[in-house]
Design brief:
about 70 residues, elongated
Length: about 70
């Protein structure tokens, strides 16, 4: 069976369905545009963050800053 996906659609493992499913990138309200990391399963609605653009050192600094506040 062949699959035809449009821009903004990918096939990845869905933890809600426990199998490969098609995910769609919804309109981004945070201003990321096509780089938005949020993807929604078209079958069950589970949301995943994929390719979150945070470097480990940047994440650690943000975590330590929030704990110090």
């Amino acid at each position: 069976m062949s699959h035809v996906y449009t821009a903004g659609m990918i096939e990845v493992y869905c933890p809600g369905c426990a199998e490969l499913q098609v995910f769609e990138q919804p309109p981004c309200v945070d201003g990321h545009g096509v780089d938005c990391p949020e993807w929604l399963c078209l079958t069950c609605g589970v949301a995943l963050l994929i390719d979150v653009p945070v470097e480990p050192a940047e994440w650690l600094a943000l975590t330590l800053d929030s704990r110090a506040a």
